Amino acid sequence: MAETQNTQTSLLEVVGLRKKYGKATAVDDISFSVPKGQFFGFLGPNGAGKSTTIQCITGTARITEGTITVAGVDVVSEYREARKRIGVSPQEFNTDIFLNARQILDFVGGYYGISKKARSEKIDTLLEQFELIEHAHKPFQALSGGLKRRVILARALIHDPDLLILDEPTAGVDVEQRHDLWRYFKELSKQGKTILLTSHYLEEVEILCDRIAIIHKGKLIADKPKADFIQGGTKLEEQYLKITREAEEQTV
């Protein structure tokens, strides 16, 4: 059974989460908590239940059993308030590709009810923070993959969420751009932002995260500090493969 970490200062609390689609169980009674300010890695093979768990956290999938709270707010009974506390940088570029960066941020800021003046100031700050000022008026479709990722990241932060979810945030970018994004993520973490990261780049997770959990076939099979995975000079990738292979053998 996976070790879990519970604390009164948890920013994200998932308790007994189960999600079924008909007779199929995508997430099977998992519990974990993420303390405020932690950089949390959430790993697993394709189809393991990562995306479903994130969808339950953000309210885009209905929870079958269990509870989830973000900053003490229940994501089901207080959906609107909980959604304000979450920012998501998704793998797919789900935005109007004909808008420019400033327009995209302005639209989302307005959606969250931020006043025009405060919105403009926040947009200026984000454009500077992610080195987008010179690209602010270019159509999204004209930007490079790395710049698109920065715009999506800025969009996720426009309403200053308590929890930032990064879902494959460096997919499709080159090595240099990936390192630039890592720098931004590290800065956000140093500023105290609570971050949940899912990624198939295990090097990325090893570099960035404080704690790592692994889900396999809907069940949580590991949850411990990064140091425990890489002790003795072992790479996270080696431990990940060992843990998931053992879990697979046990289910055969």
CATH class of the domain at 1-82 and 210-252: Alpha Beta
Going by helix content, strand content and strand pairing, the class is: alpha/beta
Report the CATH topology name of the domain at 1-82 and 210-252: Rossmann fold
Shape: globular
Q: Largest beta sheet, briefly?
A: 6 strands, mixed
How far is the first residue's CA from the last residue's CA? Answer: 17 Å
Helix content: 25-40%
CATH homologous superfamily name of the domain at 1-82 and 210-252?
A: P-loop containing nucleotide triphosphate hydrolases
| Chain-averaged pLDDT | 94
Question: Would you identify the regions where 5 or more consecutive residues have pLDDT less than 50?
Answer: 1-8
Q: Please report which band the strand proportion falls in: under 5%, 5-15%, 15-25%, 25-35%, 35-45% or over 45%.
A: 25-35%
- Name given to the CATH architecture of the domain at 1-82 and 210-252: 3-Layer(aba) Sandwich
Strand order of the largest sheet: 6-7-8-3-9-10
Structural account:
- α3 (101-111) crosses α4 and α5 runs parallel beside α6.
- Helix content is 38%, strand content 25%.
- It is built from nine helices and ten strands.
- It is an alpha/beta fold.
Report a brief summary of the structure.
With 252 residues, this protein is an alpha/beta fold.
What secondary-structure arrangement, pairings included, does this model have?
Layout: E1 10-21, E2 24-35, E3 39-43, H1 50-58, E4 65-70, E5 73-74, H2 79-84, E6 86-89, H3 101-111, H4 116-129, H5 145-157, E7 163-167, H6 175-190, E8 194-198, H7 202-208, E9 211-216, E10 219-225, H8 226-229, H9 236-251
Parallel strand pairs: 3-8, 3-9, 6-7, 7-8
Antiparallel strand pairs: 1-2, 1-4, 4-5, 9-10
Helix pairs in contact: 3-4, 5-6
